[in-house]
Amino acid sequence: QVQFVESGGELVQTGGSLRLSCAASGLTFSSYAMGWFRQAPGKERELVATINWTGTTTNYVDSVKGRFTISRDNPKNTLYLQMDSLKPEDTALYFCNAVVRSLAVFEPWGQGTQVTVSS
C-alpha cells in the first residue's frame, strides 16, 4: 500500500523556520514528481511546491517563493520542505503526495503535519 507520513510541524513564531519531512512507502518514489500541499481552516487545499523526479526542477506558489525550499532524497524515499521566514498565513495542515501535472496521484492522503505560526 502507498503511504505518506508527514512530520516536523510545530508551533513557531513569525519569522521562524521549520523543516517538514515526508516518508513515502509502497511506491517507486524516485519515479514520481512530488508535491507539498496545505490546507488552512476554512480554505481549500492548495499546492505550494513541487519537485520533479530527479530533483532538478522545482515550482512554488507565489506566496512562498523565496521562503520555502522543496527537496528530495530518493534513496531514503523522503521529501522535505524547508520553510523560512514563516508568516501567520502559513498556518495550515501540510500534506505530501506524488503529483502529475500538479494533481495529486494517490489516495488516501496521509494525516498531515500541523504548522502553526503565531503572530
Output the keywords.
single chain, 119 residues, mainly beta, seven-stranded mixed sheet, four-stranded antiparallel sheet, 0% helix
Radius of gyration: 13 Å
**What structural class do helix, strand and pairing data support?**
mainly beta
**Terminal Cα span:** 40 Å
Instruction: Estimate percent helicity.
Output: under 10%
Write down how many β-strands occur, each being a DSSP E stretch of 2 or more residues: 11
Give average pLDDT, whole number.
97
Number of helices: 0
Main sheet overview: 7 strands, mixed
Low-confidence stretches: none
Strand content: over 45%
| Order of secondary-structure elements | EEEEEEEEEEE
Gross geometry: globular
How would you summarize what this structure contains?
The chain is mainly β. The chain contains no helices and 11 strands. The strands form 2 sheets. Strands 2, 4, 5, 6, 9, 10 and 11 form a 7-stranded mixed β-sheet that branches. A 4-stranded antiparallel β-sheet has the order 1-3-8-7, with no helix packed on it.
Structure characterization notes:
The protein is mainly beta. It is built from no helices and eleven strands. It has strands spanning 3-7, 11-13, 18-25, 33-39, 46-51, 58-60, 68-73, 78-83, 92-100, 103-104, 113-118. A hairpin with a 6-residue loop joins β5 (46-51) and β6 (58-60). It is globular. The model has no long low-confidence stretch (mean pLDDT 97).
